[in-house]
Design goal:
The chain is 86% helix and 0% strand. The chain is mostly helical. The protein has one domain (7-64). The longest helix is centred in the last third of the chain and has 31 residues, at 34-64. The two termini are 12 Å apart. The relative contact order is 0.18.
Length: 65
């Protein structure tokens, strides 16, 4: 296995990807039909809840290297 990425690069990439997903989900919630609103809301709630968990796991993995 190759070396792990430095924590700054990993967190930066994670934040950028999460930001893109959140923006897309917000657009889906705002511009989607009434049927898709529940799905988009559940997806947004999952993203908010999982954010601290993802940051903890990334930081822990980078610290181990």
């Amino acid at each position: 296995m190759g070396e792990l990425l430095p924590i700054n690069e990993t967190l930066s990439r994670t934040s950028i990807n999460r930001g893109k997903v959140v923006l897309t989900t917000i657009a889906l919630f705002l511009f989607g039909g009434p049927v898709i609103h529940s799905f988009a809301f559940a997806l947004l709630a999952g993203l908010v809840v999982s954010e601290p968990i993802v940051l903890y796991l990334v930081a822990r993995r980078c610290r181990e290297s």
